[in-house]
Specification:
Layout: E1 9-10, E2 16-17, H1 50-63, H2 73-81, H3 87-94, H4 99-106, H5 114-119, E3 120-121, E4 124-125, H6 130-140, H7 147-159, H8 161-166, H9 168-180, H10 182-189, E5 196-197, E6 202-203, E7 213-214, E8 217-218, E9 222-228, E10 233-237, E11 246-264, E12 269-291, E13 296-297, E14 301-315, E15 321-328, E16 334-351, H11 353-367, H12 370-385, H13 389-400, E17 416-423, E18 428-429, E19 433-436, E20 441-447, E21 457-459, H14 464-477, E22 493-496, E23 505-511, E24 517-522, E25 533-538
Parallel strand pairs: 17-20, 19-25
Antiparallel strand pairs: 1-2, 3-4, 5-16, 6-16, 7-8, 9-11, 10-11, 11-15, 11-16, 12-13, 12-14, 12-15, 12-16, 17-18, 20-23, 21-22, 21-24, 24-25
């Protein structure tokens, strides 16, 4: 104080507590033996020290240096950074034995038949190293539908299903590629893959009829709140379809909540989730059944309705455990009363790799152009007429998707539309801030233009770090994290999409909070949340 005029106090780490402290920059310490000379600046692409290779890469980009020869990833990215990357360099890197260089080239590969020619031989994908295979599959997802690629993907899943199915990231990349080449994939799968027959539909849900009550709670079911009011009343009452016990939720304030059950499932198996719902004076998002975090959900019940059955089919993929919901005001919130009875989760007759083919056929049926869809249906019909029962199953599956209205595609004419996109190769959203009025229906259209999966999770003010930490923890603790879309099941989450794969678009409809403020939105795919984030300002 005597020398500076500041009566400074010392805080954590013995550092002075002062409003003038620079909080925007870190400190770099150099630890070296006493008497050692200072190392000169020696940025060099050939250095054994990655720091100096990175320095060489940075300097080459900033100065616009010409890179004549590419022998490692730093030279490759320097050439890409200064805009001189050419097809000859990319092809040379694709042929390199250096896995890192090959991966860098795959991320910059031309959108033609180069990859198919270089990495498919005799109908088989020649790459086996998992990280390189991951980038190849993602690169395939950027190309137009190809007979060669579709056939090679069938070969890959047929011969290496254990590797693909047991690695969540590889499985996601495979799904992205197979969906992109779905028409060719499904046609070729008919010659290689047959469904694994079970003894018929088997209900694997415990206490779906709500007849077993422990204390005042139905066995196996728990109330969960996802957003809005937490004053909704949950009960098990004798008001079911036949005077039996059923689940009930009622609220006079908008609530996004529901009854939840956790179930063990078989991997790569087809399931049907369904049950019966009755509603009274329901306003808002509506009541439905869903598989948490992955977008599989039934149609919704709104207004005042009698007992009606709702169901949705889905493939379990790599998940060994899932969470299902009897949702009240799912993806936004609602008021009124809803009853749920005779809920079931049936293991369907088609499982094994056949379930994967059906899942991809379903995606094709929903998203393909009219001409492409008609061509596949015609092919499947011809095979079915010749006695191929699996072709008949696939044909019905593709045909049933036409005109289907789901909560993702149903349009509320009064909803306010907000468009968000991912920025390719930068792991950020194209908008850091967007404004919405309080208490209004919002339609958030998220277009994933990046080369990796993303999601959008909207949380309460100041919840960014808690949501991100919870999502990271899911990777270590939750075996079904991928199937849940890395959406943490915590009360801070107001609304969320599932995983949106490259080239896909998802519509998230929800009611904006009544309370004005700055609400965090973030991608909770592992590691993304620290960078890929923004603020929804509710006014």
């Amino acid at each position: 104080k005597g020398s500076s005029g500041l009566d400074a106090k010392r805080g954590k780490g013995n550092a002075y507590v002062t409003p003038h402290r620079d909080k925007q920059h870190g400190r770099i310490y150099r630890v070296y033996p006493k008497g050692s000379p200072n190392d000169p600046y020696r940025a060099d692409f050939a250095s054994s020290n990655m720091f100096w290779r990175m320095e060489a890469q940075r300097a080459a980009v900033e100065k616009g240096e010409t890179i004549e020869r590419v022998s490692n990833i730093h030279e490759f990215y320097a050439k890409a950074g200064n805009g001189s990357l050419d097809l000859e360099t990319i092809k040379a890197a694709l042929a390199s034995k250096d896995a890192g260089l090959k991966r860098a080239a795959l991320r910059n590969a031309p959108l033609d038949d180069t990859l198919a020619k270089m990495f498919i031989s005799d109908g088989k994908i020649t790459i086996r190293e998992p990280r390189v295979l991951l980038d190849l599959l993602l690169a395939f997802s950027s190309l137009g539908d190809s007979e060669a690629i579709g056939s090679s993907l069938v070969e890959l899943i047929s011969t290496d299903s254990a590797v693909i199915m047991n690695d969540p990231v590889l499985h996601d990349a495979f799904q992205v590629a197979a969906r992109r080449h779905a028409g060719s994939f499904v046609k070729n799968a008919l010659d290689r893959i047959r469904p694994k027959e079970t003894k018929g539909p088997r209900d694997v849900l415990h206490n779906g009829n709500i007849e077993k009550i422990l204390g005042d709670q139905p066995d196996g079911w728990k109330p969960r709140f996802h957003g809005g009011s937490q004053n909704a009343v949950f009960s098990a009452v004798k008001e079911g379809r036949n005077g039996s016990m059923c689940l009930k939720v009622t609220s006079d304030q908008s609530s996004d909540s529901g009854w939840a059950a956790t179930i063990k499932v078989k991997r790569n198996t087809r399931y049907r989730l369904g049950g019966w719902i009755r509603t009274e004076n329901v306003k808002g998002s509506g009541s439905m059944f869903n598989v948490h975090g992955v977008g599989h959900r039934t149609k919704v019940a709104r207004g005042t309705t009698g007992w009606t059955e709702y169901s949705v089919d889905f493939d379990s993929g790599s998940a060994s455990e899932i969470v299902i919901h009897a949702l009240y005001g799912g993806y936004g919130g609602q008021t009124g009363t809803a009853w749920y009875d005779d809920i079931y989760l049936q293991e369907a007759s088609e499982s094994g790799l056949g379930g994967t083919v059906i899942s991809i056929a379903s995606y094709f049926g929903k998203n393909a152009s009219g001409n492409a869809r008609a061509a596949l249906i015609s092919h499947l019909s011809d095979r079915a007429e010749k006695g191929d029962q699996f072709a008949r199953v696939l044909q019905k599956n593709v045909e049933s998707q036409e005109g289907e209205q789901t909560p993702e595609t149903a349009k509320d004419p009064e909803a306010i539309t907000v468009v968000l996109k991912s920025v390719r190769e930068q792991m950020i959203f194209d908008r850091k801030v967007f404004d919405v009025p309080s208490g209004k229906r919002i339609r958030l259209l998220f277009e994933n233009t990046d080369s990796m999966p993303h999601n959008i999770v909207i949380g309460k003010p100041g919840s960014l770090e808690k949501m991100g930490t919870a999502a990271d923890q899911m990777l270590a603790d939750h075996p079904a994290a991928v199937k849940l879309g890395y959406v943490p099941d915590i009360p801070e989450v107001i609304a969320a999409t599932g995983l949106v794969f490259p080239g896909e678009t998802e519509i998230l409809e929800f009611n904006s909070p009544e309370q004005p403020g700055q609400y965090d939105f973030v991608c909770t795919f592992p590691g993304h949340w620290r960078i890929m984030k923004g603020v929804m300002r509710v006014k």
